[in-house]
Amino acid sequence: AAMISFNDVSKCYPGGFEALKGVTLSIDQGELILFAGHSGAGKSTLLKLIAAIERPTSGSIIVGQQNIGTLRRSAIPYLRRNIGMIFQEQKILYDRNVFANVMLPLQVTGFDTRTSASRVRAALDKVGLLDKERADPITLSGGEKQRLCIARAVVHRPSLLIADEPTANLDSNYARDIMAVFESFNQVGVTVLISTHDRMLLDSTRHRIIELKQGKLVA
Ligand code: ADP
Ligand code: ADP
């Protein structure tokens, strides 16, 4: 069944730039999809629409049972509870250790300390960072920082994971590791959407690739 569907979606930013033009697509639960295209093609706009960070100018977007275009502002936190997001502008906090960074999303959920701690460790374990829980994030490599961001995005066990250029600035070995982490979540049923212009990743994947060009779906 479709988990996400776009029907003739366009997004025009204030100022008039049309970042997406008439996009229609359907994503099934449990898929792993790579969104490809040059810088400016509209990849990150598309991901932001799914998380209701941006709203469509026209067309409809259904995520789960909800219509993103008409979703009330007050309903957005409930939508996001089911989404893990990895966006470049999400900053690691350098005044606390790795464990505390991953704990952050749970602080608003009201879990008791023990439950939260076991969830944080489960998430760190899944990304291979359990031995670094006490580390100062400044000491992490680029790939480890990205894995920290992934742990933080999955700690509330979302069924949908959205990552915007997660391998940008990483060399190809690290990029492969990061892809393997996403694949491991996908294997337990998490739907994973990744934007990338990393040719190596795109050429080596066995997953569906959706290509955007100047705001339009081309393949
Ligand atoms: P990609 O992720 O493929 O690089 P984006 O979705 O980030 O593409 O951007 C698509 C186009 O929309 C770009 O030309 C960008 O400058 C423009 N854009 C993105 N965000 C905004 C914004 N908040 N306001 C105005 N224009 C934007
Ligand atoms: P616990 O022992 O706390 O139940 P699990 O062994 O079930 O932990 O692993 C849970 C971890 O799996 C989560 O902390 C999270 O990192 C990851 N995860 C994220 N989304 C899902 C999902 N939809 N289904 C299963 N595991 C998920």
UniProtKB/TrEMBL annotation:
<comment type="function">
    <text>Part of the ABC transporter FtsEX involved in cellular division. Important for assembly or stability of the septal ring.</text>
</comment>
<dbReference type="GO" id="GO:0016887">
    <property type="term" value="F:ATP hydrolysis activity"/>
</dbReference>
<dbReference type="GO" id="GO:0051301">
    <property type="term" value="P:cell division"/>
</dbReference>
<dbReference type="GO" id="GO:0005524">
    <property type="term" value="F:ATP binding"/>
</dbReference>
<dbReference type="InterPro" id="IPR003593">
    <property type="entry name" value="AAA+_ATPase"/>
</dbReference>
<keyword id="KW-0547">Nucleotide-binding</keyword>
<dbReference type="GO" id="GO:0022857">
    <property type="term" value="F:transmembrane transporter activity"/>
</dbReference>
<feature type="domain" description="ABC transporter">
    <location>
        <begin position="4"/>
        <end position="218"/>
    </location>
</feature>
<protein>
    <recommendedName>
        <fullName>Cell division ATP-binding protein FtsE</fullName>
    </recommendedName>
</protein>
<keyword id="KW-0472">Membrane</keyword>
<dbReference type="GO" id="GO:0006865">
    <property type="term" value="P:amino acid transport"/>
</dbReference>
<keyword id="KW-1003">Cell membrane</keyword>
<keyword id="KW-0029">Amino-acid transport</keyword>
<comment type="similarity">
    <text>Belongs to the ABC transporter superfamily.</text>
</comment>
<keyword id="KW-0131">Cell cycle</keyword>
<dbReference type="GO" id="GO:0005886">
    <property type="term" value="C:plasma membrane"/>
</dbReference>
<dbReference type="InterPro" id="IPR015854">
    <property type="entry name" value="ABC_transpr_LolD-like"/>
</dbReference>
<keyword id="KW-0067">ATP-binding</keyword>
<dbReference type="InterPro" id="IPR017871">
    <property type="entry name" value="ABC_transporter-like_CS"/>
</dbReference>
<keyword id="KW-0132">Cell division</keyword>
<dbReference type="InterPro" id="IPR027417">
    <property type="entry name" value="P-loop_NTPase"/>
</dbReference>
<keyword id="KW-1278">Translocase</keyword>
<keyword id="KW-0813">Transport</keyword>
<dbReference type="InterPro" id="IPR003439">
    <property type="entry name" value="ABC_transporter-like_ATP-bd"/>
</dbReference>
<dbReference type="Pfam" id="PF00005">
    <property type="entry name" value="ABC_tran"/>
</dbReference>
